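Hi R.,

Here's the chain you asked about this morning:
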Amino acid sequence: MSSEQRKPPFTPPGWLNAVTRTVLRTPGLERLVGRSTALVTFTGRKTGRSYTTPVTYTRRGDRVILTAHPSRQWWRNLQARPHVGLRLAGVTFAGTARVAPRDGALTALTSFFEDQPMAARAAGLKKDATGTFNAQDLEDRLTDTVVIVVDLAPVDSTV
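And the predicted structure, written out as tokens:
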């Protein structure tokens, strides 16, 4: 693979994101669609405004893994203002986001693609005969993938 970044495979039009946000806030539909798509709410680093965008995710316990293409702008806000809201399958959580460092990103990216086979196919990844992804293919994906890890805040059960 060349050292140049690939363009994002798909840029959803604004209306599609609006429809997705509506569906993910609709009781009944949110649990079905929300198994793989979450709403992440964050604060703009320059504007201070609140933004909500749909993202594909995987959850491992109290940790949620998101990915973005480096050319996208939304994830940069998380570096300046890491506190986010996440709506996962109809349940809203608070969390702290961080861009995974290169040495931890490969493990998180592998988990993401293991849980999101459609995203793996879209990324051109295939499992080998042993049922695992090729390590070099995953390394190559890190050149054009930002891996974001969100640590969910504990839920206060006393309320």
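The chain has a mean pLDDT of 85.

Let me know if you need anything else.
M.
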